[in-house]
């Protein structure tokens, strides 16, 4: 692991130096610091040092890569690195580009991200460098030059959402602003992991979350209770998808890690609930009855209640759902 704090505040770098040694390596049980390199560049250091910190980090990462190791490089943040480029460019009297950044900002970002690679060394070993670059756009403006140029060269983008963070929803990644250009390849990989329906399930959940965003805007105007039952069910199902699949606690010994088998089982359970809930509503089951199902509370906490040792129980969740929804529909039939 190579971490570079580019233009970070001194107290934030002090927290990193204090907390990282306390983290345990899940592979060896020893301190994670033993395989971590920290390149500290605080905001009060010379601007030339800030510009050089990124190049130093990627060079160190390539050194370990050439030794046949797999390296994760975290750069926090490339926005402050770009600001250093702008300041150095201004002092050199170069012609400024958009927002005062140098005209070569795009090529410098490309040079940095394109050094991420998977290689076979001269000794025959395989090594790689994976770059995770943090961008800090002013006022959360994703249309500013650094963010725009970064999105041109990366194949995966995680957009953090202030609203989710304020609601203590972590990781606070906005599912609609984030994307991966390798979704097709990931679908093929999931197929080998026993979940051939992953791509279709992903599209279904993205559509559900888009509908949630639209309906929440309407609900703020007319009120949630004024929405038709089908739309209220959409909001309920979207809440379940967020809580069961997108919320994860890195501090939980159960939820901090999720194997592909467990992810597939969780996804199947949630998708089965969506199908059964929509069918039950069509059959005349009241939305309040669906929301009052005892199993729904357990599903909201799938990550916490079903650990790696409970995957078999998790795979039985669709059967429990079938039983509970069949009972609801039977009550409606008997009442009729």
Provide a descriptive summary of the structure in words:
The protein is an alpha/beta fold. It has 2 domains: 2-154, Rossmann fold (3-Layer(aba) Sandwich); 190-335, Bovine Mitochondrial F1-atpase, Atp Synthase Beta Chain, Chain D, domain 3 (Bovine Mitochondrial F1-ATPase, ATP Synthase Beta Chain, Chain D, domain3, Orthogonal Bundle). 54% of the residues lie in helices and 11% in strands. The chain has helices at residues 10-19, 47-66, 78-91, 105-113, 145-153, 162-166, 183-192, 198-222, 229-246, 260-282, 287-291, 294-299, 302-305, 311-315, 317-335, and strands at 2-8, 37-42, 70-76, 117-120, 126-134, 156-157, 179-180. The strands form 2 sheets. Strands 2-1-3-5-4 form a 5-stranded mixed beta sheet, with helices on both faces. It has a two-stranded antiparallel ribbon with strand order 6-7. Helix 4 (105-113) runs parallel beside helix 5 (145-153), helix 9 packs antiparallel against helix 10 (260-282) and helix 10 runs parallel beside helix 15 (317-335). The radius of gyration is 24 Å and the shape is globular.
Q: What is the makeup of the main sheet?
A: 5 strands, mixed
Number of DSSP strand runs: 7
Distance between the termini: 64 Å
Q: Quote the average pLDDT.
A: 93
- The CATH topology annotation of the largest domain reads as Rossmann fold
Share of residues in strands: 5-15%
N-to-C series of helices and strands: EHEHEHHEEHEHEHHHHHHHHH
The strand order across the widest sheet is 2-1-3-5-4
The CATH level-2 architecture of the largest domain is identified as 3-Layer(aba) Sandwich
Shape, per Cα inertia axes: globular
SS content category: alpha/beta
Instruction: Output the CATH homologous superfamily of the largest domain.
Output: P-loop containing nucleotide triphosphate hydrolases
Number of helices: 15
Return Rg in Å: 24 Å
Q: Estimate percent helicity.
A: 40-55%
Taking pLDDT < 50 over at least 5 consecutive residues as the criterion, the unreliable ranges are: none
Overall structural domain count: 2
CATH class of the largest domain: Alpha Beta
């Amino acid at each position: 692991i190579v971490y570079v704090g580019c233009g970070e505040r001194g107290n934030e770098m002090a927290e990193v130096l204090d907390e990282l040694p306390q983290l345990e390596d899940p592979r060896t049980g020893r301190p994670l610091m033993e395989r971590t390199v920290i390149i500290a560049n605080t905001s009060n250091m010379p601007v030339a040092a800030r510009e050089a910190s990124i190049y130093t980090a990627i060079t160190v990462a390539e050194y370990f890569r050439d030794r046949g190791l797999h390296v994760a490089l975290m750069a926090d943040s490339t926005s402050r690195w770009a600001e250093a480029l702008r300041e150095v460019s201004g002092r050199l009297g170069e012609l400024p580009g958009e927002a005062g950044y140098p005209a070569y900002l795009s090529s410098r970002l490309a040079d940095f991200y394109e050094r991420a690679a998977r290689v076979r060394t001269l000794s025959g070993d395989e090594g790689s460098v994976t770059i995770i670059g943090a961008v800090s756009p002013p006022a959360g403006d994703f249309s500013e030059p650094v963010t725009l140029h970064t999105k041109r060269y990366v194949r995966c983008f995680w957009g953090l959402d202030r609203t989710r963070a304020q609601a203590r929803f972590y990781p606070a990644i906005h599912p609609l602003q984030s994307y991966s250009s390798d979704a097709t390849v990931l679908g093929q990989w999931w197929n080998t992991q026993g979940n051939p329906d992953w791509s279709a399930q992903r599209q279904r959940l993205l559509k559900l979350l888009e509908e949630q965003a639209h309906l929440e805007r309407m609900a703020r105007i007319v009120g949630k209770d004024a929405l038709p039952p089908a739309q209220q069910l959409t909001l309920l199902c979207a809440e379940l998808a967020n809580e069961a699949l997108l919320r994860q606690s890195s501090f939980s010994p159960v939820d901090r890690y999720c194997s592909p088998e467990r992810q597939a089982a969780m996804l199947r359970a949630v998708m089965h609930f969506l199908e059964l809930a929509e069918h039950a509503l069509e059959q005349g089951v009241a939305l309040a009855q669906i929301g009052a199902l005892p199993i729904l509370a357990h599903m909201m906490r799938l990550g916490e209640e079903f650990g790696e040792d409970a995957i078999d129980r998790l795979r039985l969740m669709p059967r429990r759902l079938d039983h509970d929804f069949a009972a609801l529909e039977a009550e409606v039939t008997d009442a009729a």
